[in-house]
């Protein structure tokens, strides 16, 4: 990605439809909603979260709107003032399925439209999502200042007042990218979706790496094939033990080994399991 950007995440809402619960701290797939959003923009130059400080999976800068609970316009203004990049990625903290691909699409769309002042995601029904968007910082601050002057305050103002004054380009959302969690029903839906066949393993591996502080990308297919070979060629309990030993061997290779070290250790172990299976076939 060539576009340098800062990220502003709004995480201080009242969550009235969740009974006032701490929405950014609600867990989906074992990770808080806030951490899931932060994971979608790891290459932001500076990440500012507008909320009261809390533990997060990676370091962020904290700020708060004045007055606290003053609404999205006031929160966005407070967050934007803590940034320095020319492009700001603005996100709400309740997007469990936001991913890096969607972030890149927004940044690329803004970069490829020189006359645009913001690139907004649109949901499945074509509605603008101003809290899933990339903004040029200067026009954003300009419009916020104009609104503050015109209204006397940004508190309580709707976001449409901001986007109505900006030159926009729009990006259609990928499936689920704009799904947000406003109710407990939404939370239940999100929790069920991550367990669907075809996505549950990726979700689980991401959650484990996040929990253990591991950033290494590995080919899960290689490890699953190894587990299968060990289970079939040796014994079922050999599968988890073998994959553990592969991870240990890769760790001993040092950080410079990276994913290649995991792949090489898995290749050797798989070849050994296949030799065991061949001996069994000969004995049979």
UniProtKB/TrEMBL annotation:
Signal peptide: none
One Gene Ontology MF term: nucleotidyltransferase activity
The DUF6457 domain, residue ranges: 197-280
Record's keyword terms, sorted: Cytoplasm, GTP-binding, Magnesium, Metal-binding, Molybdenum cofactor biosynthesis, Nucleotide-binding, Nucleotidyltransferase, Transferase
Domain (MobA-like NTP transferase) ranges: 7-147
Record carries keyword GTP-binding: yes
InterPro entries reported in the protein's UniProt record: DUF6457, MobA-like_NTP_Trfase, Molybde_CF_guanTrfase, Nucleotide-diphossugar_trans
Entry annotated with the keyword Cytoplasm: yes
A Pfam family matched in the record: NTP_transf_3
CDD domains xrefs: MobA (cd02503)
Protein name: Molybdenum cofactor guanylyltransferase
Protein source organism: Streptomyces tanashiensis
Taxonomic classification: Bacteria, Bacillati, Actinomycetota, Actinomycetes, Kitasatosporales
């Amino acid at each position: 990605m060539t576009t340098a950007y800062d990220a502003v995440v709004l995480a201080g809402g009242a969550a009235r439809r969740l009974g006032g619960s701490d929405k950014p701290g609600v867990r989906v797939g074992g990770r808080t909603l806030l951490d899931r959003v932060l994971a979608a923009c790891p290459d932001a130059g500076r990440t500012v979260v507008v909320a009261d400080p809390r533990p997060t999976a990676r370091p962020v800068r904290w700020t708060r709107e004045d007055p606290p609970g003053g609404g999205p316009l006031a929160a966005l203004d407070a967050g934007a003032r803590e940034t320095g990049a020319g492009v700001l990625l603005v996100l709400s903290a309740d997007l469990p399925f936001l991913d890096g691909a969607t972030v890149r699409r927004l940044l690329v769309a803004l970069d490829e439209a020189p006359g645009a002042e913001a690139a907004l995601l649109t949901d499945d029904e074509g509605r603008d999502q101003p809290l899933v968007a990339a903004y040029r910082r200067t026009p954003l601050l300009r419009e916020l200042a104009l609104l503050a002057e015109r209204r006397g305050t940004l508190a309580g103002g709707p976001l449409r007042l901001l986007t109505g004054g900006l030159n926009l380009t729009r990006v259609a959302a990928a499936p689920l990218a704009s799904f947000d969690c406003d109710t407990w029903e939404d939370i239940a839906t999100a929790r069920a979706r991550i367990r669907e066949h075809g996505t549950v393993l990726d979700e689980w591996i991401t959650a484990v790496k996040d929990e253990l502080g591991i950033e290494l990308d590995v080919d899960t297919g290689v490890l699953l094939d190894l587990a299968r070979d060990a289970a079939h060629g040796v014994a079922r309990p050999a599968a988890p033990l073998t994959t553990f030993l592969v991870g240990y061997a890769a760790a001993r290779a040092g950080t410079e080994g990276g994913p290649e070290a995991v792949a090489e250790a898995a290749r050797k172990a798989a070849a050994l399991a296949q030799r065991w299976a061949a001996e069994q076939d000969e004995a049979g």
